[in-house]
Amino acid sequence: MTEEPTLLSSADALIQVAQRGAVRVLTLNRPAALNSFTQAMHAELRAALDAAAADEGVRAVLVTGAGRGFCAGQDLNDPGMAAGADGKPDIAAVIEQNYRPLALRIQAMPVPVVCAVNGVAAGAGANFAFCCDIVLAARSASFIQAFAKIGLIPDCGGTWLLPRLVGRPRALALALTGDKLPAVDAERLGMVWQVVEDADLQDTAFALASKLAAMPSAALVATRQALDASQSLTLSDALTLEARMQGELGRAHDFAEGVAAFQQKRAPVFKDR
Question: Are 111 and 246 in the same domain?
């Protein structure tokens, strides 16, 4: 590791925030509860993501978990799961208040988001990871669509993400059975980018985030937007979108810098974000 982290939050914060070079590192920090989500944790995570989005010095975000798990999903004992007017849990309100804004915040980040899954990623924890741009997993990690086991459906974008990642038949099988999927199988199915040895996960993820941080952020984010949009576009409309985005990027600093650096045989210095 070449960059020493600067801690930007208290050591016992629910979301530990650190800066390493141009990479903002966010660590889910409820290890005793496998980093399961609470209302308070959601609030800190959204604030940390908003702060990273607003900071021009941040050019990539790395998300991981403290301890032996990445995220076990929603903490069902959290006061945020309080009953509605009918005395029953108002899960719709939990989703609207927490998981919907979280998924949309990740999708709208102005820089690439790398996720390092260091252990179990279950329920909303798994789908939160899949919301990120590139997912790396420790060899011992696993992914579980645990919703059916408690009479629910995938949330945190799972119904949108899973068919796009693995196709409808596999998405249905994963969601209906709720079976544990080892990291190596998740890699085989195309759900994660890479599986690495447990001891190498954080270094490998940081190296990837640092690589992305040195690249043209605006173009990387536009690539995410174009790929997501293309899922509901005709080829003709996708080509139109490509032309519009290329037109905008072609007038920006980073394109001119990239071309100049190539011609001058030097490393480019990208600035757009």
Answer: no
User: Does residue 140 form part of some domain?
Assistant: yes
Q: What dihedral angle (degrees, nearest 10) is formed by the CA atoms of 156, 161, 162, 165? A: -150
**228-232, long-range: CB < 8 A, 24+ apart:** 228/107, 231/164
- Whole-number mean pLDDT of the chain? 95
For the segment 21-58, what is each residue's pLDDT rounded down to a tens digit? 999 999 999 999 999 999 999 999 999 999 999 999 99
In the chain, how many domains are there? 2
Same domain, 205 and 241: no
Please check whether residues 143 and 231 belong to one and the same domain.
no
Cα distance between residue 218 and residue 223, in whole Å = 9
Q: Give me the CATH number covering residue 239.
A: 1.10.12
**Residue 79 above 90 pLDDT?**
no
Q: Looking at residues 88-107, what average pLDDT do you find?
A: 94
Classify 186 as helix, strand or coil: helix
Helix axes 235-250, 217-230, angle to 10 degrees: 170
0.85 cut: is pTM over it? yes
Q: Mind giving me the DSSP string for 138-182?
A: ETT-EEE-GGGGGT----TTHHHHHHHHH-HHHHHHHHHH--EEE
**243 is in which domain, residue-wise?**
217-264
